[in-house]
Amino acid sequence: MKSDRLRLDLRSCCKRMSFLSAEFERRFEAKHGYPPGGNRLLLAGDDSDDIRLLADLGCATELLDFYAVVRQVSLPDLGNGTFVHSARHVLTGLRGAMPTLLGGVTEDPIIVFGSDGGGALFALSTSGRGVYRLFGGAFVAGTYDADQAGVTTVAPDLRRFLDTVLAELEGRINE
How far apart (Å, rounded) are the C-alpha atoms in residues 149 and 43? Predict the structure, then answer.
């Protein structure tokens, strides 16, 4: 029952983000003088195989719930860009294309699920420490090695990360 409520809450958040990203896109050129870069939230389609494979690899439930609703988020004009990658992209990352361990000052298993337009990665701690923004480190043998300055906790969980993105999107529309 709790999972059903969380999924409904996530659907509501994503529906709002979809509406706001379309509104942001629609108003962008008049406000900034150049065309927008394709700001949108894509709803989940036939991604069930990728989600099942993520589950088989032990992916965090909050990411699985997210990918049951959303395929990906692309907001290239929000700040320096905010992107939540597709389940397939995350799956490729877990298979070696992205780090799965945070090393250096903070040791923590992670799942990279997004990025920004400035080269930073967004990663979910699988030990429950929240969502990290990783910048300026080195990716070596599955580990993202960074000093403390390169690791910032930006939200306590995925849902609150999405709430932060939603609030930033609302703020940009209401400027």
Answer: 35
| pLDDT tens-digit readout, 8-24 | 688 888 889 999 999 99
Alpha helices in 33-142 (DSSP H): 48-56, 61-69, 87-92
Nearest one of 18, 21, 41, 13 to 172, comparing CA atoms: 21
What are the helix (H) ranges across 61-157? 61-69, 87-92
CB-based contacts of 47: which residues, under 8 Å, 6+ apart? 67, 71, 86, 87, 88
Which amino acid appears at position 54 of this protein?
A: L
Confidence of residue 147 (pLDDT cuts 50, 70, 90): confident
Q: Return the pLDDT at 1.
A: 42
